[in-house]
Amino acid sequence: MSCLGCFDSTKLLGNGAQLLETGSQQASSVLLVLQQNPLLQDVCATVVAAAGAIALVKIFRALSSRGIVDQKLSRKLVHILAGPGFALCWPLFSADPNARFFAAIVPCLNLLRVLALGTGVIDDPKTVNAMSREGDKSELLRGPLYYVVVLLGATLVYWRESPVGVVVFSLMCGGDGLADIVGRRLGGRHKLPWNSSKSWAGSGAMFLGGSSMAIAFIAFFCSMGYFECDIAAMALGVAAIAAVATLIESLPINQKIDDNISVPGTVALLGFLLRSALLAA
Q1: According to Swiss-Prot or TrEMBL, what is its membrane topology (predicted)?
Q2: Each residue of 120-154: pLDDT tens digit?
């Protein structure tokens, strides 16, 4: 019985290895077909990116509706993760010049969805709760709408050709999103002198979170060969831009101008002005 068991185990392991090898060969064949057909590759990448965006919202909608994650925290986690999650899908697209337009379909679909939810064309209270502060659908026509417009702009204008786009969505997602979470929990006693609704903890989190995300994405895209860069120089440029964007986000103008407009706008302007000196690709 012992020898028979050994024989069966060996046979089972052999079959498993054969299945893995077959699966690997099939995966390689699929990748080869996609690489030889940019249109098919871009269509598949669009489907994957869109599915990921939908899944992210559904996951946090479920967590929020079941009381596992606080509504405000859920909204900010979606804010932090949606942009970089989408950007992580960019390498899936082909090198074809039109690939950016396929990628732009994803934020376009999200834009239409936000408009439909915000205007009441689609009645989905759970999703509205996951994406809004107070569960009011009209809120989606402000911050969340500006958010997807910025992602759309970063995709079409910068794509994988400029680190400025990376800094734009990193400061908006990783910076502004983290600032709210940290500020609410740690900034109660240490408010900024010029804005009592903001805190030193929140501003520090925005600077560190946004700049760290930007540098990480820049290093990642450089390693993928999308643009050449000096990481040290890039880090200095990112830090300078992040510092100014953090200051802008901390000003009382946020009561009139949404952070999803002021922060990306500031970053885009500074990126344009400092690109040759600090963010040279």
Answers
A1: Multi-pass membrane protein
A2: 899 888 778 777 777 788 889 998 999 999 999 99
